[in-house]
Amino acid sequence: MIELLQQYWKPLLWTDGYHITGLAMTLWLLVASVVIGFIVSVPLSVARVSERRWLRWPIGFYTYVFRGTPLYLQLLICYTGIYSLGFVRDQPMLGSFFRDGLNCTILAFALNTCAYTTEIFAGAIRNTPHGEVEAAKAYGLDGWRLYVHVILPSALRRSLPFYSNEVIMMLHSTTLAFTATVPDLLKIARDANTATFLTFQAFGLAALLYLAVSFILIGLFRLAERRWLAFLGPTH
């Protein structure tokens, strides 16, 4: 274990001397995919509950496809499948984008978590208490102002417990990044195992790092829930 730590603690936690690797890359994949997924999912969730079928059905089809197929396959399609298409290779910008494993990985992760997050937020919007909506309308709020000032803030707060699960699952899903040759935490652990044959120590250390990140994320979400969901608790 000491030999493993002496040789691999830098690649596991930060850099191999050339690029960020290990834990730093895992956190970058998580943050980038979750932030992109969150930003895109908010308007999509509003469209998902729209009364207009032409707006609601395409979003429903997108979430069905990405929730109904394995993330591993989605990553393979983004990393190797799309670049195999002739018109993609013929476009310099598209070809350059899909030749990069990191770009493809973040794209696949963001599309996947966006699909789940869209359904989480859409469910919370549907469950917005009718009284809150009627009270807002009584004050003259309607249309986009009703969503911005009442429905979305209420839905996002009530979604926190479910959204926290999605973020944790996304952290675990980053272990698939090695498929696109992205040097995340698991890939460095695999390299350490191959070089040292210390299988238990290499993967055990990676598991401890994942546990530590999960513990921090759960703690942050608990603090957020305590702050923004206090009104749902019992009154004293």
UniProtKB/TrEMBL annotation:
GO cellular component terms listed in the entry, alphabetical order: ATP-binding cassette (ABC) transporter complex
PROSITE patterns: ABC_TM1
GO biological process: amino acid transport
GO MF term set: transmembrane transporter activity
InterPro entries membership: AA_ABC_Transporter_Permease, AA_ABC_transptr_permease_3TM, MetI-like, MetI-like_sf
Statement: the UniProt record of this protein carries the keyword Repeat: no
Localization per Swiss-Prot or TrEMBL: Cell inner membrane; Cell membrane
Key words of the record: Amino-acid transport, Cell inner membrane, Cell membrane, Membrane, Transmembrane, Transmembrane helix, Transport
Residue ranges of the TM segments: 20-46, 198-221
Topology in membrane: Multi-pass membrane protein
Domain ABC transmembrane type-1: 23-221
Family: Belongs to the binding-protein-dependent transport system permease family. HisMQ subfamily.
Quaternary structure and partners: The HisPMQJ complex is composed of two ATP-binding proteins (HisP), two transmembrane proteins (HisM and HisQ) and a solute-binding protein (HisJ). The HisPMQ-ArgT complex is composed of two ATP-binding proteins (HisP), two transmembrane proteins (HisM and HisQ) and a solute-binding protein (ArgT).
Protein name per the record: Histidine/lysine/arginine/ornithine transport system permease protein HisM
